[in-house]
Amino acid sequence: MAGKPMLEGKVAVVTGAGGGIGREIALMMAMQGARVVINDLGVSVTGDGGSATPAEQTKAIIEQRGGQAVISTDSVASWDSARNIVQTAIDAFGRIDVVVNNAGILRDVIFHKMTADDWNAVINVHLNGSFYVSRAAAEHFRKQENGAFVHMSSTSGLIGNFGQANYAAAKLGITALSKSIALDMKRYNVRSNCIAPFAWSRMTGSIPAETPEQKARVEKLKQMTPDKNAPMAVFLASDAARDVSGQVFATRLNEIFLMSSPRPIRGVHRADGWTPETIAEHAYPALKAAFMPLDRSGEVFSWDPV
Q1: Where is the signal peptide (predicted)?
Q2: pTM
Q3: Chain segment 186-211, per-residue pLDDT in tens
Q4: Does residue 188 have an active-site annotation?
Q5: Which CATH entry fits the domain spanning 11-258: 3.40.50.720, 3.30.830.10, 3.40.50.620, 3.20.20.190?
């Protein structure tokens, strides 16, 4: 049933909005009434180069559809430039209500071959970038006693994947950052949630497709277009989600999942304490049955999306 746009009157910053998931979120937020700051450097998947063209394309689409948007080409990966991103919203629209931390790069490589640069580049954009932009916006959210953060996590961090130690560490770190923001800023009516999106985009274009099994998997992934993740982002940014905070959702084609957070699953107690020997003899056998398997995201989400 048609009604009032869910984000009417709100101002949203969407990082990495020049393409893929970020663009689709920016477009849907604009269609739902938000004025949008499109932040994008126009770099390659690995973070090289730079161009304003992707952000300009997103802006053109929003304006063609009757929405309002401005562009920021500042990097999320430093304190000062992240503050510039938020200031762009204040300068253009007078306020900020929503931050979507979506910007990201990939430097996939097997762990024992990963360089310090591979590690730092990914951590700086994903984890540090999410902190810097959120921290800059938090000052405004606190003053107005309202605001919403939507961070992009990944099942690579929540579950695991090959060749992505940097990316997985950053994405799991983002879930802890989000929970901490939710706890610290609850008193100011500020909410913080994560989405672990499934989508075929240039960020997943490097997935191997050599064997028949790999090719079949890639074909399934291609069904999961980036726009399938936008509705959850819009919902979490809206007042309809005023009671939702500190949660992690996964969006997969037409499926939505609420992901668990680590909790104690089995415990053992010994009145006189533990020694390495008694751990080996008693604790280990008692706990072993509840050990988490060494599985990957694709093995946990093993069924075909429909």
Answers
A1: none
A2: 0.92
A3: 999 999 999 999 976 555 555 556 77
A4: no
A5: 3.40.50.720
